[in-house]
């Protein structure tokens, strides 16, 4: 079968062995490129198939994949926080073979059933959407609070969609005009004034500083971006406003709701989200071009999807 591999010559599509072993045999139909994959290329990470945002069919039945590998028996897993598994949580597509290929054998527990209204070609968005929804749920927004998202990439836009889905108004501060336009299509307003909840979706130190500027006294800042380094906080502003910072990573089950299923329902109910966030589609064979486009934010790419 064919798989996207990163090697000395960069990203290529190669012939690799068919997967085998126990689990469900997934025929992949959509698989999107994440900033994490672009980071892997920059790091020179090789030896595994990338792709943690994917969906496909098992025996003709469509599923999205919740790619967190976890033990299911530790305290965190039992509480539903599988992303915090203390027995070595891992992820399909992150130093373990993932979904940028034609077929993959996955644990049965990773399968997320899809509503009939969500095409499998769009269902790779369930993973990214769940990252965003998890952060929004951790914000515990109360009706009447002012909410803003800082950062108009796919996570920021899906955070906008998630806040709207939960019934609250939201504004978006985006760097690129195409991102701001996408935010408007999803129901975001233009930022003005101060906010009770600020969702950081840039993963940059400057983004965190911007969040503190936009905060009302007593506001909550949700750290949804991925930070590899120590992040400096503006000390006096943070102190004077008594800000609360909450980290959010991946997704799990909370209040008895599996966040991936909640997002599959959201994407099925509002097709405009996938139409807005997925800006490019390529055949698997065109992966090198797809990665080039995904790396060029200024050119208007938001989510780039490969369709094996
Ligand atoms: Zn991702
Ligand atoms: Zn566990």
UniProtKB/TrEMBL annotation:
Cofactor(s) it depends on: Zn(2+)
Alphabetized InterPro entries for the sequence: ADH-like_N, GroES-like_sf, NAD(P)-bd_dom_sf
Keywords: Metal-binding, Oxidoreductase, Zinc
Gene3D superfamilies: Medium-chain alcohol dehydrogenases, catalytic domain, NAD(P)-binding Rossmann-like Domain
Keyword Membrane tagged: no
Domain Alcohol dehydrogenase-like N-terminal: 25-115
Organism: freshwater metagenome
Entry keyword Thylakoid: no
Protein name as annotated: Unannotated protein
PANTHER family: SORBITOL DEHYDROGENASE
Pfam family, one: ADH_N
GO MF assignments: metal ion binding; oxidoreductase activity
Family: Belongs to the zinc-containing alcohol dehydrogenase family.
């Amino acid at each position: 079968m064919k798989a996207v591999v990163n090697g000395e010559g960069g990203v290529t599509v190669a012939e690799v062995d068919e997967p085998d072993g126990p689990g469900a045999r997934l025929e992949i139909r959509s698989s999107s490129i994440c900033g994490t994959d672009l980071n892997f290329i920059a790091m020179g990470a090789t030896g595994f198939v990338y792709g943690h945002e994917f969906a496909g069919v098992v025996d003709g039945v469509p599923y999205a994949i919740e790619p967190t590998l976890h033990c299911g028996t530790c305290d965190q897993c039992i509480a539903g926080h599988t992303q915090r598994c203390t027995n070595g949580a891992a992820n399909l597509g992150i130093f373990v073979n993932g979904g940028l290929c034609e077929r993959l054998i996955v644990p049965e527990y990773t399968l997320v059933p899809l509503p009939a209204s969500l095409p499998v070609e769009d269902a790779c968005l369930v993973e990214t959407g769940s990252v965003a929804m998890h952060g929004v749920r951790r914000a515990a927004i109360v009706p009447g609070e002012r909410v803003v998202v800082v950062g108009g990439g796919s996570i920021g836009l899906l955070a906008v969609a998630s806040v709207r889905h939960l019934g609250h108004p939201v504004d978006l501060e985006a760097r690129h005009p195409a991102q701001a336009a996408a935010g408007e299509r999803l129901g975001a307003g233009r930022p003005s004034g101060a906010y009770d909840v600020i969702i950081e979706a840039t993963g940059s130190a400057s983004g965190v500083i911007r969040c503190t500027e936009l905060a009302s006294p007593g506001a909550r800042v949700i750290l949804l971006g991925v930070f590899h380094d120590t992040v400096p906080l503006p000390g006096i502003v943070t102190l004077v406003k008594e800000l609360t910072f909450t980290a959010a990573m991946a997704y799990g089950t909370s209040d008895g709701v599996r966040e991936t299923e909640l997002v599959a329902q959201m994407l099925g109910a509002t097709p405009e989200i996938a139409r807005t966030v997925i800006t490019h589609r390529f055949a698997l064979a065109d992966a090198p071009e797809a990665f080039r486009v995904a790396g060029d934010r200024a050119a208007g790419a938001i989510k780039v999807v490969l369709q094996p």
